[in-house]
UniProtKB/TrEMBL annotation:
Specifically methylates the uridine in position 2552 of 23S rRNA at the 2'-O position of the ribose in the fully assembled 50S ribosomal subunit. The gene is rrmJ. Residues 41-216 form the Ribosomal RNA methyltransferase FtsJ domain. It is found in: Cytoplasm. It catalyses: uridine(2552) in 23S rRNA + S-adenosyl-L-methionine = 2'-O-methyluridine(2552) in 23S rRNA + S-adenosyl-L-homocysteine + H(+). Residues 1-28 are annotated as: Disordered. Its EC number is 2.1.1.166. Residues 10-26 have a biased composition (Low complexity). This is Ribosomal RNA large subunit methyltransferase E. Keywords: Cytoplasm, Methyltransferase, rRNA processing, S-adenosyl-L-methionine, Transferase. Belongs to the class I-like SAM-binding methyltransferase superfamily. RNA methyltransferase RlmE family. InterPro entries: RNA_methyltr_RlmE (IPR050082), RNA_MeTrfase_FtsJ_dom (IPR002877), rRNA-MeTfrase_E (IPR015507), SAM-dependent_MTases_sf (IPR029063). Its main location: cytoplasm.
């Protein structure tokens, strides 16, 4: 009886921003959210990178990988397994990483738009792979959100141009909007191969898509 009451309380109905009723439980939680939890990943986005890696083989053993927008850390954990203990994964995010990271991962809390993180990025060695799963905090205004997302992609591409080794690979999440074609054209001009891919694990209603660029010229 007590357990039943507790369950009812945790499922109680609340109003969302548009005034409609929704469950106070995470309405976005789905089987991948539960699977991620069971497999000790902090976010379901792990399965997007897994699909990308299975299809495009963007990372390999011993690679040095940069993960832009790395919190809460699922891609860091997955990339760390792909590169192995002789590889290295560096991550950067506005938010701190709160999970325990393996020895071949370092992460810092910083804004990618801040030019001062060049020392962390380390131009001397260069990265074999740069991943960007960055997404801006949404405002609800589609034009503003699309512009902010584009600004992050633009910065990710600049970092890829400056810090990827020759023949390096670049994966970048982008929201399909007005700037999409122009951005894709700019990526294509810098890489030998460039494709777009929407992993099955992306939420159907999401406008996000990944640009997979291989072989930096
Ligand atoms: C979808 S989450 C990334 C999830 C991550 N790939 C994972 O698997 O755990 C997007 C992240 O982009 C970060 N982000 C957004 N703008 C940023 C910026 N200017 N600099 C650094 N990180 C940023 C957000 O803080 C957020 O954690």
């Amino acid at each position: 009886m007590a357990a039943k009451k507790k369950k009812q309380a945790s499922n109680k109905s609340v109003k969302n921003q548009s005034g409609k009723n929704k469950s106070s439980k995470n309405q976005w939680a789905d089987h991948l959210t539960h699977r991620a939890k069971a497999e000790n990943y902090p976010a379901r986005s792990i399965y997007k990178l897994e699909e990308i890696q299975n299809k495009f083989k963007v990372m390999k053993k011993n690679d040095q990988v940069l993960d832009l927008g790395c919190a809460p850390g699922s891609w860091l954990l997955y990339a760390a397994k792909q590169v192995g203990n002789k590889g290295l994964v560096k991550g950067i995010d506005l938010k701190p990483i709160e999970i325990k990271l393996p020895d071949n991962v370092v992460a810092i809390k910083d804004n990618i738009l801040n030019q001062d993180n060049a020392a962390f990025l380390d131009k001397n060695r260069g990265f074999d792979v740069i991943l960007s799963d960055m997404a801006p905090a949404t405002t609800g205004r589609k034009d503003v959100d699309a512009l902010r997302s584009f600004e992050l992609c633009d910065m990710a591409l600049t970092i890829a141009k400056n810090f990827l080794v020759q023949n390096g690979n670049f994966v970048c999440k982008i929201f399909q909007g007005n700037d999409f074609n122009d951005f894709q054209k700019r990526v294509k001009s810098k890489f030998k191969e460039c494709k777009t891919f929407k992993p099955d694990s992306c939420r159907k209603q999401s406008k996000e898509i990944y640009i997979i660029a291989k072989g930096k010229k």
